[in-house]
Amino acid sequence: MTLTTKLTGLLAGAVMALATAATAADWKPSGTLRLQIGFGAGGSTDTMGRVIAKVMKEQTGWNIIAENKTGGGGVAMFTGISKMPPKGNVIGMGVNMPIMINLVKRGDQLPFDLDSFDYLGTVARAQLALVASADAPFDDIAGMVEYAKANDGLPIAFSAAPQKFLMSAVDKEAGAGFRYVSTKGGAENMKLILGGQVLAGFGSGEHLQHLESGDVKMIASANDSRHNYAPDTQTVREAGYDVYVDPYFFFATTAGTDPEALAALTKALSDAIASDEVAEVVKNATQTEALNLGPDTTKQMLVDGVENVRVLFAD
Question: Is-above-0.90 flag for pTM?
Fold first, then answer.
């Protein structure tokens, strides 16, 4: 997606927000509004989602609860939401990469597609890191591959399909013999690394405190660019493997939701994301600034992303 496209979407979102502000103010959920989070407790998605739900509740006066709906990197949660009546009483918070890869690799087996949802916005673009314990006998992708080859493989903790696919692509080219340990989130990945059960794993913010304390070290950026807090650490692409992931945290509800409800939900989310409290938790969780693409650009990000994944990740 180009910067021009993003800016156009943001401007369109601002115009829409002004046009629908009065209408949005008249709507409120009937009963409890549930913010479902597609990952387990303790990770960066969960942390941000719970603060957003709290701030939305304080700002709107609505009864809002946050709940974890794990499975398939958000696939299970969005499956449930796609089948719900479009009443505007459930919002799903997920990460784009697992959804896009599943749509590309097994879309004919899923009960939903991108048109199954109405999109509300994003909160951040994550910086995904591959990390290892501080005493791991390698410091970069090249060393990690050589160590795995010399030691009959290497266990890697992952909490979402894109992470596994990224390393599978590296493994396919390098013949490293990586072994994969599935977890429920980045917090569990860190626990396994620190406990010595795996030698490496992925973090999208959960690793930062351990990086600062010196208990882990960063092996590579999984994004298309280096991380602002680790400018000297190469990306996987720079290490010679033409794969990357760019995770966005996004919000959606069931397609066909009443426009008045969508306007109110979009405004409530936008107001919460613009708050100092959410800005702080996003910074702490991801080391990036809060970023809300708005409804239209969020959907376009996913549409464009599926095509990108089709080229980069499909077999």
Answer: no
